[in-house]
């Protein structure tokens, strides 16, 4: 079973018991932290008062895992065991220990929560990860997609008795995009500065600083979805953050090639392309962008690559960021 982190609190509220094995994983630290807090709190309500935390790594003594599950306190018959693996790699001994631990029947009266980042594409093929994914109730702690961020902010505000219009929430989301921890801090701050009720744009602008953290993946999604204003903002943000330009260019070029493959497959009536992880945004981009414009953009990216290496390209600006914004907006505005 898999539960999205934003839905976990409601799900736990409807549950009279907890599964023996849990896995909080993803790439959003705040959601992983809060998911662990929610599960731990619900376990305590259900009588799991004995708690033990194991901070593990690839070089840790993994024999602790089985020992911890077997040793329940003298005055408690229920235990909550947390296994934290911040590095995401258990090592050879850890991998075996996890598989052995999950292979036996759950110890009665013990709930175990594993918390770790989701492995890369190679790691998810490992036997220990497959065992975790199959045996545990999984809480997906991935970043909130930008289109869903205003609703996430609104839900957080509602807990403090505050609300805002859709336009104000969109403005708020622009200021905290890609930085959920900052978003939570700003929402908490607003609850202290203003009374319950509706917040105005002026309230937000006076109190919330620009703490957005932009990503290359966000840029690709914005291009695919035709969000030109967001494309411009993200590129400016990536440059201001000091993002390594060759990396930005490499990822964007790779994803445009994937779009070409997806578009070609769509025109041939095919729904699957081997070797392409087609996210909803990429699928939307492949439907929206024609092959002619995609191939033209790839040609421009080749020019930008030469510019970034200090070579002159006729009729192109010498600043690769300017050219990158130009071709990205060309794609975002294309129909």
From TrEMBL:
Secretion signal span: none
Gene3D superfamilies, A to Z: 1.10.8.60, 1.20.272.10, P-loop containing nucleotide triphosphate hydrolases
Q: Name one GO cellular component term.
A: DNA polymerase III complex
Task: Report the residue ranges that make up the DNA polymerase III delta N-terminal domain in this protein.
Answer: 23-141
Annotated CDD domains: HLD_clamp_pol_III_delta
Instruction: List the molecular function annotations (GO) for this entry.
Output: DNA binding; DNA-directed DNA polymerase activity
- Pfam families on file: DNA_pol3_delta
UniProt EC number = 2.7.7.7
InterPro entries linked to this entry:
DNA_pol3_clamp-load_cplx_C (IPR008921), DNA_pol3_delta_N (IPR010372), DNA_polIII_delta (IPR005790), P-loop_NTPase (IPR027417)
Q: Which GO terms describe its biological process?
A: DNA-templated DNA replication
Source superkingdom? Bacteria
Task: Identify the keywords attached in UniProt to this record, alphabetized.
Answer: DNA replication, DNA-directed DNA polymerase, Nucleotidyltransferase, Transferase
Reaction catalysed by this chain? DNA(n) + a 2'-deoxyribonucleoside 5'-triphosphate = DNA(n+1) + diphosphate
Regarding protein family, the annotation reads: Belongs to the DNA polymerase HolA subunit family.
Q: What is this protein called?
A: DNA polymerase III subunit delta
Q: What is the lineage of its organism?
A: Bacteria, Pseudomonadati, Pseudomonadota, Betaproteobacteria, Burkholderiales
Instruction: Name the gene behind this protein.
Output: holA
